[in-house]
Amino acid sequence: MQKRILTLLLAVVMVLVTVAAPVKPVEAATGNNASKVIDALGVMKTDKGVSTSQTQKINRAQYAQMLVNMSGNKGKVTSKSNVSLFQDVPKTYWAAGYIQTAINQGWMSGYMNGSFKPAQSVTLMEAVNGVLKLLGYTNSDFTGSISAAQMALYDSKELDKNITKTKNQAMTRKDLMNLFYNTLTATTKDGKVYAETLGYKIDAKGEVDYLSLVNNNMEGPILADGDWKDEIPFLLGTATFYKDGTLGTISDIQENDVIYYSKDLKSIWAYDNKVTGTIQSILPDRLVPTSVMVGQKEYKLGTNDMSVAFSSLGKVDVGDTVTLILGKDDSVVDVLTINEYNTNITGIVIGTGEHVVNNTKDDMVAANYVTFVDAGGNEYVQDYDIAATIYNIGDVIRVTYENGVGTIKLLNQGSSAFANCTFSEDGTKLGNNNLAANVKVIDYFSGNYVKVNPKRLSGTTLSGSSVYYYETNSSGNISKLILNNVSGDVFKYGILTNSTSQMGTDSMSYEYTLDGTVKSAVANFYIAEKGPKGFIFDPSNSTQIKDTMDLTGITVKSIGTTTVQDSIQKYPMADNVAVFYYNVGKYSATTLSKVSDLKKYKLTAYYDRTIGLGGRVRVIVAENIN
Predict the structure, then answer these.
(1) What's the CA gap between 372 and 397, in Å, rounded?
(2) Distance of CA 606 to the CA centre of its chain
(3) How far is CA 561 from CA 164, 468, 593, in A?
(4) Which pLDDT tens digit goes with each residue over 26-85?
(5) Which of 114, 119, 117 is nearest to 85 (CA)?
(6) Distance of alpha carbon 26 from the chain centroid
(7) Which of 103, 112, 302, 501 is most buried (CB neighbours < 10 A)?
(8) CA-CA distance, 20 to 295, in Å (whole number)?
């Protein structure tokens, strides 16, 4: 019996596609806790909508509804009002009910001439008054100039984190996002953390616990089909939508997506996470299955229906080629046979090789294979006939299934369609092309890759050779991108400290410091200059250097939260910037906070490329000032 199952499993040797055990890539930053929490709570969602642009100014009417969203009155107040409070806010005005609540609660006020000026941008001073009132303060708590006292409290309670506006300047979406988040983590007048008074959890670092916020309120899963909307217990018009963790719209939800929802948060999360491959085993057995092995990776069965589907009474068995539909925790929510879900997988080759497998006659034979990665960062292994063609690292390929059999097609590599196009500030567009809410992006170079969030590429302009592959969805939005070393995040950054020749070979041995550890590797080329570098290593052999990048140094004159500045301009720092203290010829890993005193230390920051090309400060070296 075991031999028969093994034969079934390996019968399609030359066409078997499997998912390799993933080599976890380095992921670029996906945004701070503030944006995730504020988005999850729907604080900035208004009946008239809000631009996703971080620089969009927010008007007073929108701010009134946002204050309602930040309070215990969220969901209890409607836009309707039975009175016209102001000459420019009739009771039929879209935000009349929210403005009435904001006035009654003392969060906002009108003007002496009887107007409210709903379309006027809200200023920092007005916004501060609103959030301080949410925290329980009243005008009687301030002496002298109320506005000056409020601004002093705003500063002392650190409500100003990541906000640079002066009191009379207009607030942008980004400013208010930070103000609202700072308010959630601040203490109220009676000493309680404001977020906790609303029922949200705070973690050990004093941050709003985002995962707890989302997971404790999620219900599901629901498979997106023709009537999935009927299963949502609230009006979809009032909901906040996410696709693969990114803010989106209802139109981003496609058939066979997995949906979760929160009635309290009025939010819907949709996930498009599918894995295609051959079932290698069902564990522990088909009597009471709890997980399935596909492509050397085990997936937990997430529902009772899936336990039945993979049991002896189900529709699939070992040896079948299937597509697993996965939920947010990578558990199996549904399974589709190859006849139910025709699929193809496009990616770039990151490795090639030969291994021994059993053919249809159960004989051991050698088979060639490619390892490739798609735009979502999923790795696959595909066997192929070397007599027909030979695939190389860097080739863009597509695996297509027909009658359960996978075949490889070599695609044209590269596209100049986006030459001179720039990623928008909010990461929603590339040039004039919209990006899908759940756009999947990897940056590839020399057999290595990283997953990248489009916001990381904000302001980056592409050259004619920057795109290996792109794909659009049914709405015409870019849904998949494979880039050619656009971000620079593929490299690892550290210090090259020494080099020696390897006797009898053409190779050189190098000593370097990376992640605070001294390591060594070899390369078949000569690196002339020591010091800060970017390194590319062989994915299958971390002791083999495949390429390096020289960095450009500047003398740091000032340090910000996310930037450093020389005498001319500011340079953004990488999230994982490597900081070293240099003394007597030795580099020691440290943190920026320990060497940020520019009166005591001389700092030299090293960046990889210009800002317009996605550059970041990758290494900072501190030395004592004599």
Answers:
(1) 8
(2) 25
(3) 12, 34, 10
(4) 333 333 688 889 988 889 888 886 566 788 999 999 999 999 999 988 878 888 888 888
(5) 114
(6) 12
(7) 302
(8) 6
Q: Is the dihedral of CA 373, 378, 379, 381 positive or negative?
A: negative
Q: Which residues lie below 8 Å from residue 127, measured CB to CB, with a gap of 6+?
A: 63, 171, 175, 176, 179
Nearest to 246 by CA among 11, 503, 56, 428: 428
What CA–CA distance (Å, rounded) separates 167 from 131? 14
For residues 415 and 317, give the distance between their C-alpha atoms in angstroms, rounded to a whole number: 41
DSSP letter (8 states) at residue 502? P
Cα 264 to Cα 261: distance, rounded to the nearest angstrom: 9
> In this structure, which amino acid lies at residue 271?
Y
Q: Which residue do the tokens 């309120």 mark? A: 217
Measured distance CA(563)–CA(569) in Å, rounded? 10
H or E stretch covering 102 = helix 96-104
Query: Phi first, then psi: what are they for 335, rounded to 5°?
Result: -135, 135
pLDDT of residue 618: 97
| Residue whose entry in the numeric block shows the structure tokens 């290698």 | 280
φ, ψ dihedrals at 469, nearest 5° = -160, 145
Give yes or no for a contact between 365 and 385, defined as CB atoms under 8 angstroms apart: no
For residue 464 the two structure tokens come to 């004619």
Q: Contact at 8 Å (CB) between 310 and 282? A: yes
Over residues 167-210, the pLDDT tens digits come to 999 999 999 999 999 999 999 999 999 999 998 899 888 899 98
- Radius of gyration, alpha carbons of the chain: 28
DSSP category for residue 199: T
- Residue type at 101 in one-letter notation: T
